[in-house]
Design a protein that fits this description.
Layout (H helix, E strand, L loop, with lengths): L3 H4 L1 E2 L4 E2 L4 H11 L3 E5 L5 E6 H9 L21 E2 L4 H11 L3 E6 L2 E7 H7 L2 H12 L1
Parallel strand pairs: 2-3, 5-6
Antiparallel strand pairs: 1-7, 3-4, 6-7
Amino acid sequence: MTTAREIMTPDATCIGAQETVLEAAKKMASHGVGALPICGDDQKLKGMLTDRDIVVKVLAAGKDPAQVKAGELAQGEAVTIGADDEADEILRTMSEHQVRRLPVIDGHTLVGIVAQADVARSLPDPQVGDLLEALSA
């Protein structure tokens, strides 16, 4: 069976919890991504920051992205997947938590991200269709 390690995008770039949202937006643009994991000083995952978070929680709220810290937007415990977890677990976790991106953890270390696009490229069409249906509900 296919594991997260086999389909993930490796070497995920983190934004530090103390870095600004403006710095996060620049990283997103330079890497061509719409989300970044938020990592604390201890290198542990604190959450995920999306381009939508920046627009809705910072810009639309009239806040200065050069002043807001990425860590301020981390909410609760991040939903993750183990590097050796199988495809069924990836699909279940994405569907259950209604997330399109899952940070992949090996022990306590962030090793990559499984995005909806990774799933679409790697898994059979019926499984992908079920995921898309679940995320669109």
